[in-house]
Amino acid sequence: MTYSIAQAAERTGLSVDTLRYYERIGLLEPPARDSGGRRVYSDADLTWLDFLTKLRLTGMPIRMMREYAQLRYRGVMTAGRRKQLLVEHRADVLERIAELRSCLDVLNYKIDNYDQILRDQAARERAAATPEEATA
């Protein structure tokens, strides 16, 4: 199946400008063109764009993405270096996940603390509302 640039943008969640930018900097090979000269994207292009989006979301720098893309275009003989790039990036992602988990622990602690404060406050308010029961 083929897609116009607008359809590719919609399906990938990237903007048309981002698709053109990725093509310009070498992350995406220039797509085929239709008889009118308009870009035509394939399912394989969309799969590649999805992978690039994952790399970007995990914080891979454009520089590394470009290196990976250029290696990919050179074929199977670059598999070792491509794997190495992904292994290195995975280590960075795991480190960020650990940092985020630590931050989440702090947030959970603070939320639990506020829950306790609110429970204590509600108990004090209930007790203050019925002082005659407390003295009886």
Automatic annotation (TrEMBL):
Which domain of life does the UniProt lineage start with? Answer: Bacteria
Against InterPro entries, the record matches this protein to: DNA-bd_dom_put_sf, MerR-type_HTH_dom, MerR_fam
Q: Which GO terms describe its molecular function?
A: DNA binding
Question: Top-down, what is the taxonomic lineage of the species of origin?
Answer: Bacteria, Bacillati, Actinomycetota, Actinomycetes, Pseudonocardiales
Q: Known PROSITE patterns for this protein? A: HTH_MERR_1, HTH_MERR_2
Q: Where is the HTH merR-type domain positioned along the sequence? A: 2-71
SUPFAM superfamilies given in the database record: Putative DNA-binding domain (SSF46955)
Give the Pfam families listed for this entry: MerR_1 (PF13411)
From the Swiss-Prot or TrEMBL record, give the protein name: DNA-binding transcriptional regulator, MerR family
Keywords attached to this Swiss-Prot or TrEMBL record, sorted alphabetically, are:
DNA-binding
